Amino acid sequence: MTARRKLAAGNWKMNGTAEALDQVRALLAAHGAPGCDILLCPPATLVHRMADLAQGSAVAVGGQDCHAAASGAHTGDTSAAMLVDAGASHVITGHSERRTDHGETDAQVRAKTEAAHGAGLVAVVCIGETLDQREAGETLAVCGAQLAGSLPEGATAANTVVAYEPVWAIGTGKVPTLEQIEEVHTFLRRELEARFGAEGAGMRLLYGGSVKPSNAAEIFAVRDVDGALVGGASLKADDFGGIIAALEKA
Ligand code: PEP
């Protein structure tokens, strides 16, 4: 099997001002040489400062979104090259909150992901079903279609991470059963291998949705779970540190 280095990724969403960087300082002090990759995606206003703080450390910094265009008349948006300029190495694309709040389609997510790759960023591409879709038995069909539509042809193991995030599990405290997580991850791995061959086998597959220190270990023991995309529990160094510790042991 292709070796995939585990990844603990934090999505701060629209949370945090300068004082929150103390959490990063604490994380850096506690995890100098971690046994997994660590990524933090703060709001755009903190990317530059966090990247400066984390420079030379084991913590990578990413944006939460980027525009598909390189520059232009797009008030309020940030291009992939601007994230790179601010010190980011990664960007989240297609998070369900952007798909819902901003109506982002698979085609737009794919274009953003392509732009991220073009600028040299690793894209963390998010997919996942709603509760209605799960209850209608559409989970695999929905996730398969989102995966196919959101990943560009140039996706590789080096430039792409896929995050399976059931919409109904994000920020709700509800978590799918381990069997449900395994079913989706096994399916996604098959789809990635069928389309991208060895590159698909090497792409990291994260689970996201209400991961916390108390449930991380059992989730990380599931086959084909290569880490987590964490929202709420990434805001505090102690909580995120507990998840990192669980991943290091997985
Ligand atoms: C997320 O924002 O991607 C997420 C998974 O959030 P939470 O961990 O808070 O459910």
Model description:
The chain has 250 residues and is of the alpha/beta class. It has a single domain (7-249), classed as TIM Barrel, CATH 3.20.20.70. The chain is built from eleven helices and eight strands. Strands 1-2-3-4-5-6-7-8 form an eight-stranded parallel β-barrel, surrounded by seven helices. Strand 3 (59-63), helix 3 (80-86) and strand 4 (90-93) form a beta-alpha-beta unit. Helix 7 (139-150) packs parallel to helix 8. It starts with 6 loop residues before the first strand and ends with a helix. The structure holds phosphoenolpyruvate. Phosphoenolpyruvate binds next to strand 8.
Question: Helix-strand pattern, N to C?
Answer: EHEHEHEHHEHHEHHEHEH
The spatial strand order of the largest sheet comes to 1-2-3-4-5-6-7-8
Rg (CA only): 17 Å
Query: What oligomeric state best describes the polypeptide chains here?
Result: single chain
- Classified in CATH, the superfamily is Aldolase class I
Helical residues, percent: 40-55%
Major beta-sheet overview: 8 strands, parallel, barrel
Number of individual domains: 1
What top-tier CATH class fits best?
A: Alpha Beta
Percentage of β-strand residues: 15-25%
Averaged pLDDT, please? 96
Which structural class should the secondary elements be placed in? Answer: alpha/beta
Bound chemical compounds: phosphoenolpyruvate
- CATH topology name, in short, is TIM Barrel
Number of extended strands: 8
- Catalogue the unreliable spans: none
CATH architecture: Alpha-Beta Barrel
Cα distance, first to last residue? 16 Å
**Helical segment tally?**
11
